[in-house]
Amino acid sequence: MIFKSALQNFSRNLWLSLTSIIVVFLMVFSLGFFLTLNIVAQKWFDSLNQKMDIEIYLNQNASLDLVNLLRSELENMKEVKSLKYVSQEETLTQFTEKHQDNPIIKKSLEEIKENPFGASLKLKLSKPEDFTRIMEVIDKPEYQSIIYDKDFYDYQQILNVFEKFNEKFHTIAITLGILFTFIAAFTIFTTIRIAIYSRQEEIKIMRLVGAKNSVIQGPFILEGWFSALLGWGISLFTYLFFAKMINTQIQKFLGFDFNLVSYLQNNSLFFFGSLLIFSLIIATISSWIATEKYLKV
Asked: In the 3-class helix/strand/coil scheme, how is the chain assigned residue by residue?
């Protein structure tokens, strides 16, 4: 009875119902899009964490005592994830293997007849924000006599850019999310209000025969649910199609193999389930307010 009545309401106000579906679709799709952007940004940041390293090139005649002192200080820092000492011989071997197909470099090394390389220290950082603290130790005056050069990315600058982007992104996402949610809620509210007006005579008769409030109110709540479910369903298929289209571009941007479609499928219960629950909550609240206001139940 309630379900059948809800379907009748839905079909009677088809254009308004379609408008509600479209608005719910836009709301769900935009929220899903912002969630995906957040996931991609986090994956990129996680990949940066894996690549965070600093290489310190030491002078050939570097004091062993100072080298050991620097190693000890860095190893005892919680900000340093790992530290590897690469000897002069290892550096030469690695360089030779890397350029084994280059006859000019091979000939130059043979002519020098001695190892032109110094040792080096390779550090991995625990977090990007630890970069400044580690550089403070490396840049101490007492170590400058043993350090020939340093090779690193300015992780602090990258972190600052990421934080600024993240802050602006969240502001835009929250603003647009609230806007689309409000529009969706208002559209569903309006649809239910018009549905109530179009059934005024039927509602009066139902009251006269002693129909329960739940029987009168139920179809309108269900009508709101129909809009939410259909809008969510359309956005789900559209979004998966969209994800397949941009999957390759995301992999190129991240620089490693991350399959967005597989991620969404593996996390579909949380990702799409959360959006479905949110849509139903908005539809329920909007429909309930409309029925409370215009049915006077």
From this structure: CHHHHHHHHHHHCHHHHHHHHHHHHHHHHHHHHHHHHHHHHHHHHHHHHHHCEEEEEECCCCCHHHHHHHHHHHHCCCCEEEEEEECHHHHHHHHHHHCCCCHHHHHHHHHHCCCCCCCEEEEEECCHHHHHHHHHHHCCHHHCCCEEEEECCCHHHHHHHHHHHHHHHHHHHHHHHHHHHHHHHHHHHHHHHHHHHHCHHHHHHHHHCCCCHHHHHHHHHHHHHHHHHHHHHHHHHHHHHHHHHHHHHHHHHHCCCCCHHHHHHHCHHHHHHHHHHHHHHHHHHHHHHHHHHHCCC
